[in-house]
C-alpha cells in the first residue's frame, strides 16, 4: 500500500493544528462559517484517529508517541494536549446548546437555497439535520471515551471537575442525537401502481419479468424485514400498512426530523423535542451517513469502555434494529435477482425518478456494510470492486477528464439534495444540501472491501485500486493559504474549474481522515489466507517434523549430549511454525525452511561421523 497512513495522518494533524490554533486559541470555521456539523468534523479530524488507532492515542499523557507529540506541538506538551482538547470539546457542546439546556443540531451554513434570489431564513438555518445527529454520535462517544481514560491520569481537583462536567454534557448531547436519529427514520409504503412502485419495479427487474412476479418475489425476499418493522415501538417508522403483501416499501433516514414524528418518552437531560418538517421518505445520502454514525454505538470500544448509560442502551437497541433492517433492505434490492444485480445497472434511479452515479455509490456503500456483517464471498466482493472501478472511471478519478467533462460535477459543485419539507418553515425557499465527497466515499468503501477479502489476489487488486484513488485525492490538497496540506482543491486535478480555495473544507478533510483510519486498520489487520500457501507450508512442516524425529532417533547417545541444545532450539522453531501456520503461513514456511536446512547439516555431519567410525 502506497498510502502510508501513519505518515499521512501525522502530516494532516500538523496542518490542522497550524490552521485551528490561532494566537494560542482554537479557531472554528473554514471554507464556510461555523455550524454544528463543520465544527464536529473539525474536531473529529483529531478525535477520531485518537480513539480508533492505538498509535495515535492522546488520552494518557505518558503514553503519547513522540511523533504524535511533534505533530500536536501547537497544543503544548504531553500534559497540555488533552487539557486543550478538553476545553475545546466543552466549548463545542456549549456552542450548540440553547439557553434552556437543549442541544441543537442545525445545518447552518451547510444549507443552500434552491432559489437564486432568496436565501434561507434564520428559522431554516436552525433546522436540525441528520448529518449533525450522526456526527455528534461519533464525536460524543469519542469524547466520553477520552474522558474515561484521561481522568485516570489526573490528580488535579479542578481538572477532574471539568472532566466530569464534559462527560455529563457530552452524554446529554449523545442522548439527544440518538433521539434525533430515531425521529428521522421513516418507512415509505406505496402501491406497485404508484410512480414510486413503478420506479422500484423497473430498477430491480433486470430480466423483463412481469410486475406481478417481481412484487411476489420482493415480498418473499423481504418478508423478514417486513415482520421486523413491527418491533418499532419508539421513534418514527411505525406502520401497519406492511401487513398488506401487495404493498411495496423503502426505509431509511430522511434529511431531518420527519413531519409528525412522535415524541420519545422516558429520556432526560435533552430538553425540548422539536417538531419535524422533513418529508417522510428516505434519502440515500442521509441514510448512509446515519448508518455510519449508528455503527459506533455498538463498536468494540463502546462496549469495552461501557460508554452508554441504561437510557442510551435502550435507544441504541432501537437504532440497531433500524440499522440492521435498512442495510438488509437495500442490499436485497441492490442484489435482487438470479444473475445481474440492479446495482450493476449504473446509474441508480431512485423512486422519485432521479438518477445519478452518486446514488449508485451510496447504495454500494450500504451493500458493502451489509456484506461485512455476513462475511460475503470473494465473488460478491469482486462484483462490488468492479462497480467501484466503473464509478471511479465515470467520475473521472482514474480516467482523465477532457474539457467540461460531465464527470467533474461529482467533485465540484457536487450533487444537490433537495430537502423537501424545508420550504414549509417560516415562508423560506426550499433548501438544498450540497455533497461532493464522491472520491472519498469510493476510497473508504474500497479499503473496507480490502479488509473483507479472503484471497490475497483480490486484496492486492483492491489495494492497487485504492492507491489510484488516493493519488487523485492527494493531488487535491490545498497547496497554499491557511489550510495548506488539507482539503479540498479539485482545481488541482480539473484545470477548467474556476473554484479556488485557501481555507480548508472540514467536510472533506474529515472524510479523508476516516479513509486513513481505515487504511491504518487494513495495514495492522490480519492478512487474508492463501489456501495454496497454507497447504505448501503444512507439507514442509510435516517433512520437517518427520526429519526431526528421525534425527533424534538416530543420534548416538554421546552425540545427543552435544546436540541437545541445538535440537531443542529446532523443536522450539517447529512449535512456533505450527502455532502460526493458519494465521501467517508465509512466516511459518520461512521458519520451517530454516529447520530443514539445519537438519540437513546435522544429517550430513552424522553420516560423515558414521563413515569415519566404519
How does the SSE layout of this entry go?
Layout: H1 5-20, E1 21-22, E2 25-26, H2 36-52, H3 66-71, H4 80-95, E3 111-113, H5 122-125, H6 130-150, H7 157-184, E4 185-190, H8 195-204, H9 211-221, H10 223-228, E5 248-253, H11 284-295, H12 300-305, H13 310-334, E6 348-349, E7 355-356, H14 357-373, H15 378-394, E8 415-419, E9 431-435, H16 438-452, H17 456-474, H18 506-524, H19 531-554, H20 557-579, H21 585-613
Antiparallel strand pairs: 1-2, 3-9, 4-5, 6-7, 8-9
Helix pairs in contact: 1-18, 2-4, 2-6, 2-18, 4-7, 6-7, 6-11, 7-13, 11-13, 11-14, 13-14, 14-15, 14-16, 15-16, 15-17, 16-17, 16-18, 19-20, 19-21, 20-21
Briefly, what is this?
This protein has 614 residues and is mainly alpha-helical. The chain contains 21 helices and nine strands.
Notes on the protein architecture:
56% of the residues lie in helices and 5% in strands. With 614 residues, the chain is mostly helical. It starts with a helix and ends with a helix. It is globular and about 105 Å long. The protein has helices at 5-20, 36-52, 66-71, 80-95, 122-125, 130-150, 157-184, 195-204, 211-221, 223-228, 284-295, 300-305, 310-334, 357-373, 378-394, 438-452, 456-474, 506-524, 531-554, 557-579, 585-613; strands at 21-22, 25-26, 111-113, 185-190, 248-253, 348-349, 355-356, 415-419, 431-435. Helix 6 (130-150) packs parallel to helix 11 (284-295), helix 19 (531-554) runs parallel beside helix 21 (585-613) and helix 20 packs antiparallel against helix 21. The longest helix has 29 residues, at 585-613.
